[in-house]
Write a structure and sequence with these properties.
The complex is a heterodimer of chains A (228) and B (469). With 228 residues, chain A is an alpha/beta fold. Chain A contains eight helices and eleven strands. Chain A is elongated, with a radius of gyration of 20 Å. In chain B, the strands form three sheets. A five-stranded mixed β-sheet of chain B has the order 6-8-9-11-10. A four-stranded antiparallel β-sheet of chain B has the order 1-4-3-2, with helices on both faces. In chain B, a hairpin with a 2-residue loop joins strand 8 and strand 9. The chains are: A alpha/beta (228), B alpha+beta (469). At the A-B interface, helix 4 and helix 8 of A face helix 7, helix 8, helix 9 and helix 10 of B. Chain A: One of its GO terms (cellular component) is cytosol.
């Protein structure tokens, strides 16, 4: 996966570069609008992360210039989250829109969403360690034992399992599981994860559902000594 | 800057006075002109009559000499009155008839006319006398110098102009003084307003010494001051609250990071610090984005992504989302009624969830929270009622203010930074609605309305964003 980041703020560009690199992306960085435009046309990127505030040529202008030639998915970044800006960006052909300060995890999730299109159908049977999940019959088993999960608990587990190894933020979880598209002030997700953990990990030696403090949750098999 | 009211009034008085005086002056001048003219004419006519009588009486050449002598005597030394007798017989004529007069008499019917003679203008009348005895028919002319008439008129006009100007000046001056005196309450009001200091926001203008017209103005001004004082107090409190809310996580961030860097730490210790910092940063992010959201609602941004949906359905979704919280708190929720309306879903969910959380927070275990949805004309009303301790009247209206807390004490809760209900208010405002709160018989109700009436679109800003945004 090859990405282009067009961002003039050095710290932001650097951490995005490093973070996305570690997520397995090949990343190019452009510091100005014209550079970004030139790079976008020169290479075939899987997605472009484009800041709105840029020297010389603003993000909307870069986006227009790119759209005249290519249909590469573009995620716009801006310090303002006025609806007007969002509408403007989307109308100009942006695929998604993130307001600063944004969570890195959310950017990754959105990048995955815009690059996912056209990929092969996901499997309906998931297996993580000794946890088995059947997405069709909506049943989950751990070490052969059936897990008694409510519908929401199953949806939550399925989401975490489909994104195995990825950290999912509370916002993403609330949006995906409950269709709550706002930054909620509640600890609903925490409580729901706690309950799910009691059922999935409670009686078992090896823990699969991990909390990453300040970021979110991840479902994966870890080495026993690494487990918290 | 515009001229003062007194000056403006004085100028207006001056213009009015000038108009009135001019009109009266012109009229008086015309009247006098006509009267003097008539007077002169009658004098000329009288003299002509007299001369005519004498001419009539003298019908032979000898007595004509007497007439000449008489007419010589009648003509004053300064030639201010002149007589002429014109006729075909040189024996029966009088005076050197100037060419002009001869010409005028030839062309004109016998009527009063003006005659320019030796540089003076004279008013003349002529008359024909039929023949009698030796004397043939003659034409007699009497002329009166109109210089006196002109002088009188000129003097009168001069006096009139001078009086008019003096009158205008006097009216202007008096008008200015009167305006000054009349406006004295205004200037004292303005002085009083100037003496209001920003240090003491509770100062007000005194209404008692003011005339009726001004006391209304002053009352309105005092009303504006009231509102400003309230807004200022709110802003001040708000600033303090924001500073407090931001200071806590910032202190944690700075302190923890400094402590971590003061000594060599293991990776695990540093990771712990980073994790804790991340939590604090997330708290900051949330406060900032909530504040921005409220600011945008304040600036009049309205909900644009409206869809027509069932409110009960969305409330049920919210209840489902909050299910685990409700269960932990041991409370149940019942949704009553339904209504369809156009609203922005995510905003509605946010408001509904904040109201429900507020109700849960103030409910005992086993309590039932009722969400009542109803439509009243063009308004949809969502009311969330929970059994709870009565809320004093003075708090009710203010609970939707930012960071306002009825108990006064700041609960240090991580999830709740006191903006929940003010966000409900902002959401209602963005949909052209309002919020309400009541407390009676051990039941507290908080809610909001959404209006279906289309709102004026927010002014679109230019696409460029600014650095400080």
């Amino acid at each position: 996966m090859k990405l282009l980041i067009v961002e003039d703020e050095p710290k932001t560009a650097d951490y995005l570069h490093r973070g996305l690199n570690e997520q397995g992306y090949t990343v190019d960085v452009a510091r100005t609008g014209p550079d970004g435009h030139a790079l976008a046309l020169l290479h075939d990127y899987d997605a472009i992360v484009l800041d709105v505030m840029l020297p010389e040529m603003d993000g909307f202008a870069v986006l227009r210039a790119i759209r005249a030639r290519k249909q590469t998915p573009v995620i716009m970044l801006t310090a303002r989250d006025r609806v007007d800006d969002r509408v403007h960006g989307l109308r100009e052909g942006a695929d998604d829109y993130l307001a600063k300060p944004f969570s890195f995890l959310e950017l990754v999730a959105r990048l995955q969403a815009v690059t996912r299109r056209g990929r092969v159908q996901e499997s309906t049977q998931l297996r993580i360690g000794d946890l088995e999940i059947d997405l069709l019959s909506r049943k989950a088993h751990r070490a052969g034992n059936r897990l008694e999960l409510t519908a929401k608990e199953f949806a939550l587990l399925a989401l975490l399992a489909r994104r195995e190894g990825q950290i999912l933020s509370k916002t993403v979880i609330a949006e995906q599981v409950w269709d709550m598209s706002f930054d909620s002030d509640t600890n609903v997700v925490e409580v729901a994860i706690k309950r799910l953990r009691a059922k999935v990990d409670g009686p078992y030696e090896r823990k699969l559902l991990h909390t990453i403090r300040g970021m979110g949750y991840v479902l994966e098999v870890r080495d026993a000594r690494e487990a918290p | 800057m515009k001229a003062s009211i007194a000056t403006r009034l004085a100028v207006m008085f001056a213009v009015a006075a000038l108009g009135v005086f001019s009109l009266v002056g012109v009229a008086l001048y015309r009247v006098l002109y006509r009267e003097l003219g008539r007077h002169q004419l009658s004098e000329v006519n009288t003299r002509l009559e007299y001369v005519g009588m004498m001419v009539n009486r003298n019908d032979n050449a000898v007595s004509w000499q007497n007439l000449r002598t008489k007419l010589d005597t009648l003509t004053p030394a300064d030639d201010s009155v002149r007589y002429w007798v014109l006729g075909p017989d040189p024996r029966f004529v009088y005076g050197d008839v100037p060419a002009e007069l001869r010409e005028r008499l030839g062309t004109q019917a016998p009527r009063p006319f003006m005659l320019e003679l030796e540089g003076r203008s004279m008013r003349a009348v002529s008359r024909s006398i039929p023949p009698k005895g030796e004397r043939p028919a003659v034409q007699i002319v009497a002329a009166l110098d109109s210089e006196r008439f002109c002088n009188t008129l000129d003097t009168f006009a001069g006096a009139l102009v001078a009086l008019c100007l003096a009158g205008v000046a006097l009216v202007t001056f008096l008008g200015y003084r009167i305006a000054k005196v009349g406006l004295a309450p205004l200037s004292s009001l303005s002085q009083e307003a100037q003496s209001l200091s920003p240090r003491d926001l509770s100062q007000r203008l005194r209404l008692s010494p003011l005339p009726r017209e001004l006391s209304d103005l002053a009352a309105s001004f005092n009303g504006a001051l009231d509102r400003l004082e309230r807004a200022y107090a709110q802003l001040e409190g708000f600033n303090a609250d924001v500073a407090h809310e931001l200071r806590t996580p910032l202190t944690n961030l700075i302190g923890q990071t400094q402590v971590a860097l003061a000594k060599e730490r293991t990776a695990a210790q540093l990771e712990e610090v980073l994790q804790s910092n991340l939590e604090e940063l997330d708290r900051l992010r949330k406060i900032v984005s909530d504040m921005l959201f409220l600011a945008r609602a304040d600036q009049g941004e309205t909900a644009l992504d409206r869809v027509h949906t069932s409110a009960a359905e969305e409330v049920s979704k919210t209840v489902e989302f909050l299910d685990v919280i409700l269960e932990e708190a041991g409370v149940s929720v019942r949704v009553e009624g339904d209504a369809h309306a156009s609203f922005e879903r995510s905003l509605f969910l946010r408001a509904a969830s904040n109201l429900l959380l507020n109700a849960v927070e103030h409910s005992e275990r086993g309590a039932e929270i009722v969400v009542a949805i109803a439509r009243r004309e063009s308004e949809m009303r969502i009311a969330v009622t929970n059994p709870g301790a009565p809320i004093p009247e003075q708090h009710l209206g203010r609970l939707f203010d930012r960071f306002y807390r009825a108990d006064g004490a700041r609960r240090n809760s991580r999830d709740n930074h006191g903006l929940g209900l003010s966000i409900v208010k902002a959401v209602a405002k963005m949909h052209g609605g309002t919020v309400f709160a009541t407390s009676a018989e051990g039941r507290n109700t908080f809610g909001f309305t959404l209006s279906d009436a289309p709102l004026a679109a927010t002014p679109r800003l230019a696409g460029r964003e600014s650095r400080e945004a």
